[in-house]
Amino acid sequence: MAIIDAIEAIFLAFLAVIANLFAGMIAGVLLVKEIVFKVFGLNKPVPHPRSILITGASSGIGAELAVRYAKPRTRLILVARNVTRLEKVKKQCEEKGATVEIASLDMSDSKAVKSYMEEVDKRVNIDLVVANAGISMTPPKEGELFSDAAQRLFDVNVFGVFHTIAPIMEGMRHRGRGQVAIMSSLSGIFSHPNLSYYGASKSALVAFSRHFRPVAAEQGIRLTCICPGFVETPLVQEMRDAGGKLPGFAVMDVKAAAKVITKGLERDRPVIIFPAIQYWPVHMTSTMPPFIQAFWNYMALKYPLAGSRQS
Ligand SMILES: NC(=O)c1ccc[n+]([C@@H]2O[C@H](COP(=O)([O-])OP(=O)(O)OC[C@H]3O[C@@H](n4cnc5c(N)ncnc54)[C@H](OP(=O)(O)O)[C@@H]3O)[C@@H](O)[C@H]2O)c1
Ligand SMILES: *[C@@H]1O[C@H](CO)[C@@H](O)[C@H](O)[C@H]1NC(C)=O
Ligand SMILES: *[C@@H]1O[C@H](CO)[C@@H](O)[C@H](O)[C@H]1NC(C)=O
């Protein structure tokens, strides 16, 4: 590492201080605006969604969101592959008074996903779609390359999301309203080196959401990116089984996570990112110069916390 790198880093740190001062000023202005709007009752809350489609609703965060949204006069459309598990979630939601429909779909089957989403949106006019289905990367099978496993991962995590939301957004555009939630991850901001492919798939969703939100807004559609840290679900258990070291205290309860997500969607937040204790260090690292990130990665491999190696 040359001296020039260190000088550049100091200069960037200086710029970061100025940028953050500006951010602080904008935050102050927004705070005053919020208080004024609250006092005069000018805030327009997001209307309660009546028809909600959730992918990956058979387990974990998706199932918990379904149960949270379940109430009378609400129609839920729950999508995943495993019908046995979908039926179980369906029953729980019906007990809370919701009307529930399930669909067994593999997110990597682009044709089936597109035609189902188009059909269901024509029939029920979706108010809120939560594109949540996702997998972590399991090591490649015997004789397979890592790129083959990565292809499967991107088919589900990235293209599965696009094929879910695009046909529904087409309908929302005509209706001039709707809400779209895309499930990314803190790994999409800055990931553990053991999760490089998974992190890359989630980064694609962060980048897409960030740039697409204003485009969607022009069509009356609210678009939110969800970036949770570790949440106690079968996905995290899978990482543990693959040798990942995830201490219990670093993993959030799934009920608490679902609550944060629904509250954030009610407020139409651009990004729902939590818990703060994980978000802050991850965010800070993501803004640091590359040689500091490389050092962080080196430490993360030496003193591991998460994931199993993907390369
Ligand atoms: N848990 C965490 O720490 C964490 C953190 C950040 C982000 N996330 C993200 O949150 C989302 C949900 O994860 P989770 O933790 O709740 O994991 P999970 O319990 O394993 O749930 C994953 C869901 O996705 C579905 N799914 C997986 N592959 C599918 C496919 N090919 N086609 C259709 N559905 C498929 C699964 O259902 P079937 O098996 O029945 O198909 C299941 O309902 C994922 O996108 C994940 O990346 C999780
Ligand atoms: C579906 O889930 C049930 C319950 O978890 C499990 O017993 C069954 O093997 C799963 N089916 C498939 C096809 O994966
Ligand atoms: C990363 O992967 C290696 C090799 O699979 C494994 O030994 C290590 O425990 C993993 N690190 C973490 C943090 O899980």
TrEMBL record:
- Could you confirm whether the keyword Transmembrane appears in this record? yes
Query: Which InterPro entries would you find in this protein's record?
Result: NAD(P)-bd_dom_sf (IPR036291), Sc_DH/Rdtase_CS (IPR020904), SDR_fam (IPR002347)
The UniProt keywords, alphabetically, are: Membrane, NADP, Oxidoreductase, Transmembrane, Transmembrane helix
Spell out the Gene3D superfamilies in the cross-references.
Answer: NAD(P)-binding Rossmann-like Domain (3.40.50.720)
The family database entries (Pfam families) matched by this protein are listed as: adh_short
Q: Which PANTHER family does the record cross-reference, listed alphabetically?
A: DEHYDROGENASE/REDUCTASE SDR FAMILY MEMBER 7B, DEHYDROGENASE_REDUCTASE SDR FAMILY MEMBER 7B
General function of this protein: Putative oxidoreductase.
Record's family?
Answer: Belongs to the short-chain dehydrogenases/reductases (SDR) family.
Protein name, UniProt field: Uncharacterized protein
